[in-house]
């Protein structure tokens, strides 16, 4: 390891104004009120971060559907049994609502053993009963639909929690069943997810099915900005050599409440002995004092005399692990900060795990998906008294000398950077891009800076109430169809997820010194849009492309300007960090002013990975960095027929705009690349490569 502190690749400060935790007269927080306003929709998709109150939002909506919309029953499906507790009885009347939430114990199949031969038969018994609410796992629902048929669920609400587990992939059973429910059109569906992107997997819904859903989006920015206590979130990656257990204290602060996720046994970070890894971590922390007989927590005395209470969820002894797990879920200890200090887990303590005191989510090795990373980060983003800062650290093994290890190391490094870029995008205010026109006017509720709105410039406005950042861009294409408008408003992070995880894109963006940025921003992003949204026409595909590139590149430029160079890797809390949550807004505004005229061509000329490389260069040793660059350079290939075709199309567009073809001798690198592509296209065509 190069330094004693990881350098956050993302460091975002918030206003902590308390708005997201305040309840209205019905006991609803901001997100729940927004979702409840859409309670009349037949198909509702709620995208909202962990800890924003999705479970209770569903209770409000389900009660209305049962009592006022004449639905017969509500069936709530969760991915695993432990999450079923989120839907336990709630005295909602006490907080101002008109009904309480109640689930008969026998119908909470996450706890109850089931009857009549098991849980699936219990679903059948429930469907034939007069009771109103059932809670079960996704698996139980799948088997029940198989057994009783789609028609058996008519006139009922089906609510799917952690909806990112569903997929439009034909092999995903629940996804296929939901398609059939939508085709029959006799149920109401409420889908909820805390993960903003599925770029590492198949789409959750087919486009035609997703178009049926009304979406409620509550952003990370709104959630964290509206907290009462938490005001800063840092996300970073850190490279180490040798065994991670030896160096873990360089990133683990025993004074912080921490969840450590040790590596999957199949990952290169694993020592292949998970029990010994836990023992090593305990040894590094201090002197073992035994096991607490009541909770099963490991007791470790640190060098400064503190007694740490450590929950080990890795132990293979099911009885021991269950005792520890039960102690962590003890409702009497929920508000006791001193109940536990550190939790060590492998596959547990991710989604749905509610420990509000967690200040640091420390993950060793790359996880299987971005969704998993979002869920892990969500463990640290709960609001709690005295908790002003939270962080997520991804600990990654540095490059080894052997060829296989280099390949794996490169892949893990690129995945960590992709996750970091995506989380940064998710944590920022929502962008609203507008083409710059002479007729534009200031929008109500937006602050355009000290000098106010200037009709002669590209303005940047911020709406504190809605968390929207409005940016005027010269030459920006506007989406025309309703679907393209929805994508630009709701799904830019999905697009960016696919882009930054495209291996060729991120490799070239980080390590190709001869890169022409437009090859990524126009060609690669353009191809991703075409593949992802084939139903859009060419004009709408281009509009979505421009909006996605603008969102990614403006966030990166704003970060650079807001945080400064910070070249020596100081703790960002003392490195001139802005005192309020305006850093990103000020950064975007400053960038727009510095370039005088913010236009889409300028934005296309920015390498989206430039800032990520700067962070990487500070975090990774020079030798490792050279090794990664060399491994990527060795694979570099010349133009493919598809790339040549895309460049030729850009060359045609260039000719329409300029009245001439791009020149192979141009001083402009992008014009020269288009000319090369057009020539390659003609050559490939003559060779019959497009037959």
UniProtKB/TrEMBL annotation:
The keyword Acetylation does not apply. The keyword Signal does not apply. InterPro entries: DEAD/DEAH_box_helicase_dom, Helicase_ATP-bd, P-loop_NTPase. SUPFAM superfamilies: P-loop containing nucleoside triphosphate hydrolases. GO terms for molecular function: ATP binding; helicase activity; nucleic acid binding. Gene3D superfamilies: P-loop containing nucleotide triphosphate hydrolases (3.40.50.300). Residues 24-224 form the Helicase ATP-binding domain. Pfam families: DEAD. Signal peptide: none annotated. Keywords: ATP-binding, Helicase, Hydrolase, Nucleotide-binding. This is DEAD/DEAH box helicase. It comes from Iodobacter ciconiae.
């Amino acid at each position: 390891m190069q330094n004693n502190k990881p350098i956050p690749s993302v460091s975002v400060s918030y206003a902590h104004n308390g708005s997201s935790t305040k309840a209205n007269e019905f006991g609803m927080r901001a997100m729940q009120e927004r979702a409840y306003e859409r309670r009349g929709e037949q198909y509702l998709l709620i995208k909202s971060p962990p800890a924003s109150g999705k479970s209770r939002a569903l209770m409000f909506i389900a009660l209305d559907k049962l009592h006022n919309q004449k639905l017969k029953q509500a069936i709530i499906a969760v991915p695993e049994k432990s999450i079923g507790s989120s839907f336990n009885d709630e005295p909602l009347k006490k907080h101002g609502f008109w009904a309480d939430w109640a689930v008969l114990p026998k119908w909470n199949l996450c706890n109850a053993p089931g009857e009549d031969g098991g849980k699936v038969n219990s679903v059948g018994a429930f469907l034939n009963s007069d009771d109103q609410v059932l809670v079960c796992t996704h698996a139980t629902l799948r088997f029940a639909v198989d057994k009783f048929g789609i028609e058996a669920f008519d006139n009922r609400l089906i609510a799917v929690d952690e909806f990112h587990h569903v997929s439009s992939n034909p092999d995903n059973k629940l996804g296929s069943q939901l398609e059939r429910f939508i085709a029959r059109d006799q149920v109401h569906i409420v889908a909820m997810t805390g993960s903003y992107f599925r770029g590492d997997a198949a789409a959750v819904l087919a486009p035609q099915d997703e178009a049926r859903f009304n979406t409620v989006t509550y952003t990370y920015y709104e959630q964290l900005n509206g907290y009462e206590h938490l005001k800063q979130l840092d996300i970073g990656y850190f490279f180490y050599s040798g065994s991670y257990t030896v160096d873990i204290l360089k990133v683990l602060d025993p004074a912080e409440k921490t969840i450590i996720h040790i590596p999957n046994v199949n990952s290169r970070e694993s020592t292949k002995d998970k029990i010994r890894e836990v023992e090593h971590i305990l040894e590094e922390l201090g002197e073992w004092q035994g096991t607490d007989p009541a909770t099963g927590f490991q007791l470790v005395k640190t060098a400064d005399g503190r007694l740490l209470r450590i929950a080990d969820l890795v132990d293979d002894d099911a009885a021991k692990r269950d005792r520890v797990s039960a102690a962590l879920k003890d409702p009497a200890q929920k508000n006791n900060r001193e109940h536990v200090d550190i939790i060590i887990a492998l596959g547990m303590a991710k989604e749905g795990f509610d420990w509000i005191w967690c200040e640091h989510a420390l993950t060793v090795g790359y996880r299987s998906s971005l969704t998993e990373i979002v869920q892990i980060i969500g463990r640290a983003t709960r609001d709690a008294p005295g908790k002003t800062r939270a962080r997520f650290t991804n600990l990654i093994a540095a490059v080894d000398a052997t060829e296989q290890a280099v390949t794996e190391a490169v892949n893990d490094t690129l995945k960590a950077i992709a996750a970091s870029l995506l989380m940064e995008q998710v944590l920022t205010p929502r962008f609203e891009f507008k083409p710059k026109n002479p007729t534009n006017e200031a929008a109500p509720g937006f602050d355009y800076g000290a000098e106010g709105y200037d009709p002669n410039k590209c303005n940047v406005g911020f709406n504190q109430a809605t968390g929207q950042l409005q940016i005027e861009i010269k030459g920006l294409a506007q989406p025309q169809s309703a679907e393209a408008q929805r994508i630009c408003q709701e799904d830019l992070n999905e697009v960016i997820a696919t882009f930054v995880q495209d291996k060729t894109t991120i490799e070239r963006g980080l390590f190709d010194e001869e890169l022409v940025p437009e090859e990524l921003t126009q060609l690669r992003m353009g191809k991703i849009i075409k593949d992802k949204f084939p139903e859009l026409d060419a004009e709408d595909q281009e509009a979505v492309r421009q909006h996605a590139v603008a969102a990614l590149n403006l966030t990166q430029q704003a970060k650079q300007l807001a945080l400064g160079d910070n070249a020596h890797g100081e703790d960002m809390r003392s490195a001139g960090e802005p005192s309020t949550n305006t850093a990103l807004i000020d950064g975007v505004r400053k960038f727009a002013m510095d370039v005088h005229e913010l236009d889409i061509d300028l934005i296309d000329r920015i390498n989206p990975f430039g800032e990520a490389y700067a962070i990487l260069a500070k975090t990774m040793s020079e030798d490792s960095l050279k090794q990664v660059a060399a491994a990527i350079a060795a694979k570099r290939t010349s133009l493919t027929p598809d790339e040549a075709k895309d460049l030729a199309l850009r060359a045609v567009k260039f000719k329409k705009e300029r009245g001439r073809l791009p020149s192979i001798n141009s001083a402009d690198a992008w014009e020269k690349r288009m000319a090369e592509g057009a020539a390659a296209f003609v050559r490939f065509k003559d060779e019959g490569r497009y037959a």
